[in-house]
Amino acid sequence: MNTKKKPKFRRWMSNSLRRINESWRRPRGTHSKIKRDEKGKIKMPTPGYGAPKKLRYLHPSGFREVLVWNLKDLEKIDLKTQAVKIAHTVGKKKREVILKKAEEMKIKVLNP
After folding, report:
1. Is the separation of the CB atoms in 14 and 22 below 8 Å?
2. What is the distance between the alpha carbons of residues 36 and 91, in angstroms, rounded to a whole number?
3. How far lies 99's CA from each of 18, 37, 54, 56, in Å?
4. Which of 71, 106, 107, 112 is the most buried (most CB within 10 A)?
5. Where are the domains of the chain?
6. H or E element: which one contains 8?
C-alpha cells in the first residue's frame, strides 16, 4: 500500500484573496512561476501523484463501494472485496429492510 502523502493541491492565491476558492484550477498565465513548475512554489497535480491501480476507487476500509437501491442488488455483492453504500434516494422503510438483509448476509454497510 502506498503510504506517501500527497500535497494538498490548493489554488494559487486562495490563501490571500477571499474571493478565490481553494478548489484547484490550473494556472494559465504566461509568466506564472507555478505553471513553470519552479522550485519552492505550490505543487501542481500530475499523473505521478496517482494511486496504484489496485488501490484506486477503494474505500478507506479497503473495500470497493457498491451502490444499492434494492434487495436484488445485495445478492450480487462479493463479501470479501465489496461493501455496500445505500443510495440516497432510498426511503426510510426500504433502507431498514436492506440493513436487516445485509446484517443477515454479513455484508458491510458503509452508510447505515
Report:
1. yes
2. 51
3. 44, 50, 29, 27
4. 107
5. 7-50, 51-112
6. none
Q: Are 82 and 66 in contact (CB under 8 A)?
A: yes
Query: What is the model's pLDDT at position 80?
Result: 94
- Cell numbers 426511503 label which residue? 91
User: CA-to-CA distance for 56 and 62, rounded, in angstroms?
Assistant: 10
Length of the chain: 112
Q: Which residue has the cell 473495500?
A: 63
Burial class for 65, CB neighbours closer than 10 Å (0-12, 13-18, 19+): middle
Answering whether pTM is above 0.70, one says: no
Instruction: Count the helix, strand and coil residues of the chain and give each as a percent rounded to the nearest 5.
Output: 20, 10, 70
Other beta carbons within 10 Å of 27: 16
